[in-house]
Amino acid sequence: MKKTFLFVLLMCCFAGVAKAQNIQLHYDLGRAMYNSLEDRPWVTTTVEMFKADKWGSTFFFVDMDYTDKGVASAYWEISRELKFWKAPVSAHIEYNGGLNYINNAFLAGPAYNWNSADFSRVFGVQVMYKYIQKNDEPHNFQVTGTWTINFCQGKYTFSGFADFWREKHFDVHGNEHNYIFMTEPQFWVNLNQFKHVNKDLNLSVGTEWEMSTNFATRNGFYYIPTLAMKWTF
């Protein structure tokens, strides 16, 4: 629900057409698919903000998970992209953190971005040092890839990110793991790009597929889809 927004807006900013924020609502199907996720919340909201300036850009997002008793967990990332030169490589610094035993993480490294001439296709790669506070082995790395493809005259968007990082941790059964892979491709139908729909109706409907290996306390591969709506401001 997260990193693709930053990359797309960074590219759009260079074209002078950036939109600053969106809010997403996801109905999570994880607990319906896995007995081990029976306590997983059904609903997640994501709020994202992006702002560019002459020295680069700032981005953050906040995820909040809900049960019938209220907010069950929260997670946020904030990053600063520095690029006041013409080369396609930017300097990237980032903080990740949240509730429910999520350790603070600090990241830094170069970011390479590419876009087609009409910005219908954008791709990026970040290679970062990752310091995870209070981890038994705090010095780690993370590689992130992002993509966005708009097609059919902007009616549809296929976007997402993929993370691979090192982090010593243990799953629910006590097995030790050192590497985590996660990807969250999204598919959106952008309603205001269709004929007879008001252009100011900035609503998209779609889905997100969270796919991960050894993430958090899970052992092995998990596939968790959502049904989603997004409003872009």
UniProtKB/TrEMBL annotation:
KW Signal (keyword) present: yes
InterPro entries in UniProt: Channel_Tsx-like_sf
Signal peptide range: 1-20
Cellular component GO terms, alphabetical: cell outer membrane
Keyword Signal in annotation: yes
One Pfam family, short name: DUF5020
Protein name: DUF5020 domain-containing protein
Lineage, opening ranks: Bacteria, Pseudomonadati, Bacteroidota, Bacteroidia, Bacteroidales
